[in-house]
């Protein structure tokens, strides 16, 4: 038996009073089914965006379920993270990453247009997120500047998966969905596939470079007529300074014939989006490589859980290194690629030892390093191991507040508890030298994390 470990395993669900854990600070926005508040975790001081959804306002429960399941399944630097779900009798709360930089829409509004070099950097991030989704056969269906938010001044996150859809192979859709300016011709015709996101992305890029949409009219009916024809121009004065390469990319996205329209991977390979990611050194020392490589499986699972819940500003250099290494734009790294880059930086080290480090990162044993696996491999710095955060992570495993972590607690996170497979989880504990029936206490858990005690 092998574990399939994903970031979604550590998105927690609880039925409790939100105010016991979080302090609401300010209203960030309001949507059709809920209000988003800026909030602070009372113990860790983590700042979160909390989407408050009154159950009475949920008219399409399948959409909400779809949004949550899609967010839980995603693990990418340019897709918003969900950390926790809290429910009480009347409300549902989605605890998510706070994007403090605001919407791309407001950024365009305030700047009128975006300089081409900056637009290319932002657009590459958008397409990395879309390509990741499309590789998972997920279509977003509502790509627009309002659904792209800055987590910092240079990093965009794709949000709002309320009408996203996971597709079967070659599946098409017929439901009209999205926002008028950004709808594709095929959505209006009632028969479309995943390439509808590419059209919407082309509209977003057009607006970024000139400040207005390619298909503008005073009414939705007139907008739709223009979209169906598909004619647009670069005649405005804003386009005089825009390169031919940028215009060429837009032309290959805003094509009515979906067979001729670029795919997300073709967009990322386009000349306009090349040479935008400088080489980033690994924020890691040789002793830290040694500690992680020698760690048992249980400690690496604990580190993965921490990596799932720490704030991105704590590891921005790790994020940038991951994106630099993601040369095929899939949102995961091949073991070979990662090992080769490590050998360049740690050229005095034995290549076999670096290979062991990379394989230790691959908790799924699937030959790829996912984003959170990558982060976990770099969590050797004690700055991540604050007592409040360690307690929070301990409580994810010790869900029922026993004051200890048992093999069945680990099992609960990865499958429905059953006695048949419990032996497998007991073996993981034995490998970590945690063999007594008392389980792992908070003190022992802390020792394991900082790699100087039981099970390290």
Your description of this structure?
The protein has 456 residues and is an alpha+beta fold. Helix content is 41%, strand content 14%. The strands form five sheets. It has a six-stranded mixed beta sheet, with helices on one face. Strands 7-9-10 form a three-stranded antiparallel beta sheet. A hairpin with a 4-residue loop joins strand 2 and strand 3 (35-41). The longest helix is centred in the first third of the chain and has 20 residues, at 116-135. The protein is globular.
Q: What's a concise summary of this model?
A:
Keywords: ATP-binding, Calcium, Kinase, Metal-binding, Nucleotide-binding, Repeat, Serine/threonine-protein kinase, Transferase. The protein is built from 18 helices and 15 strands.
Overall structural class, as computed from helix and strand content, comes to alpha+beta
**Mean pLDDT across all amino acids:** 90
So how many helices? 18
CATH topology of the largest domain: Transferase(Phosphotransferase), domain 1
Radius of gyration: 23 Å
Largest sheet: 6 strands, mixed
Identify low-pLDDT runs.
Answer: none
Keywords:
456 residues; serine/threonine-protein kinase; Recoverin, domain 1; alpha+beta; kinase; six-stranded mixed beta sheet; EC 2.7.11.1; 18 helices; Phosphorylase Kinase, domain 1; three-stranded antiparallel beta sheet; 3 domains; globular; Transferase(Phosphotransferase), domain 1
